[in-house]
C-alpha cells in the first residue's frame, strides 16, 4: 500500500502558453513535473493527475457570466495532458457539471476515498494554477487529514501577487512548502 501520492494538478494544454487560458510560463514546469512523476513512480507512490474537464456550456465560461474564456472542454485537444503519465496513473476529472465550478481536485470527486483506500497518508502537489486549482486542492487535502506538501519548484500561478498570497494562505493552513 503506497503511503504517498503525487497529485499533478491540471497540467493541460489550455493552461499552457498558446492555450485558451494560459498560465504565463506554465510550460516551464513541464520538465520538473515529469521528473517528479518519474521519481515518485519509482518509489512506489500513487500518481494522480487531476484535469479540468468542463462541458461546453460550463458556468465558469464568459458566455455564461463566468470569469474565464472557454477552456478544457471535455474531449478537446485543449483538455489533453502535457505531462508524461504512467499507464496506472489515476485520472480525476473535475468541474464536469454544467452549473458547478470546482477548483479543488477533491470537490465532487472520489479523490479522498481513492487516497484512503490506497493507504495514502502524505500527498505532494504540483501543477497549475497556484492560486486557483493548486491552492484549492492543497487546502482540501489538509482538511481531509492528509499530510500535505507543495512542490513549489513545480507550480505556476496566473498572477504573481495572487500566487504569493496563495502560498501564504496554504502555509497558514498547514501545507508544507518544499
Ligand atoms: C483553473 C481557472 C479556471 C485551474 C481552472 O486549473 O487553476 N483556473 N479553471
Ligand atoms: Zn476551469
TrEMBL record:
Pfam families of this UniProt entry? Answer: Isochorismatase
Question: In the record, what terms sit under GO molecular function?
Answer: hydrolase activity, acting on carbon-nitrogen (but not peptide) bonds, in linear amides; metal ion binding; nicotinamidase activity
Query: One of this protein's GO BP terms?
Result: pyridine nucleotide biosynthetic process
CDD domains tied to this protein: nicotinamidase
Q: Which InterPro entries match?
A: Isochorismatase-like_dom, Isochorismatase-like_sf, Isochorismatase_Nicotinamidase
Keyword annotations? Hydrolase, Metal-binding, Pyridine nucleotide biosynthesis
Spans through the membrane: none
Q: What class of enzyme is it?
A: hydrolase
**SUPFAM superfamilies for this protein:** Isochorismatase-like hydrolases
The Isochorismatase-like domain covers which part of the protein?
A: 5-177
Identify the EC number(s). Answer: 3.5.1.19
Query: Do the record's keywords include Chaperone?
Result: no
Source organism's superkingdom?
Answer: Archaea
Pathway recorded for this protein? Cofactor biosynthesis; nicotinate biosynthesis; nicotinate from nicotinamide: step 1/1
Membership in a protein family: Belongs to the isochorismatase family.
UniProt-recorded name of the protein: nicotinamidase
The protein's organism comes out as Thermococcus kodakarensis (strain ATCC BAA-918 / JCM 12380 / KOD1) (Pyrococcus kodakaraensis (strain KOD1))
The taxonomic lineage of its organism, from the top, reads:
Archaea, Methanobacteriati, Methanobacteriota, Thermococci, Thermococcales
Amino acid at each position: 500500500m503506497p503511503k504517498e501520492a503525487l497529485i499533478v494538478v491540471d497540467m493541460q494544454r489550455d493552461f499552457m502558453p498558446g492555450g485558451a487560458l494560459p498560465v504565463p510560463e506554465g510550460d516551464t514546469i513541464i520538465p520538473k513535473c515529469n521528473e517528479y512523476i518519474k521519481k515518485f513512480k519509482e518509489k512506489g507512490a500513487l500518481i494522480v493527475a487531476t484535469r479540468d474537464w468542463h462541458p461546453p456550456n460550463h458556468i465558469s465560461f464568459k458566455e455564461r457570466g463566468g470569469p474565464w474564456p472557454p477552456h478544457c472542454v471535455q474531449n478537446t485537444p485543449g483538455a489533453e495532458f502535457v505531462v508524461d503519465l504512467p499507464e496506472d496513473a489515476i485520472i480525476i476529472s473535475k468541474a464536469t457539471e454544467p452549473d458547478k465550478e470546482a477548483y479543488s481536485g477533491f470537490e465532487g470527486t472520489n479523490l479522498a476515498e481513492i487516497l484512503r483506500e490506497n493507504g495514502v497518508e502524505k500527498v505532494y502537489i504540483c501543477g497549475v494554477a497556484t492560486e486557483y486549482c493548486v491552492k484549492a486542492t492543497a487546502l482540501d487535502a489538509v482538511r481531509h487529514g492528509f499530510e500535505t506538501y507543495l512542490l513549489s519548484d513545480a507550480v505556476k500561478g496566473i498572477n504573481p501577487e495572487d500566487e504569493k498570497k496563495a502560498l501564504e494562505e496554504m502555509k497558514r493552513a498547514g501545507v508544507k512548502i518544499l
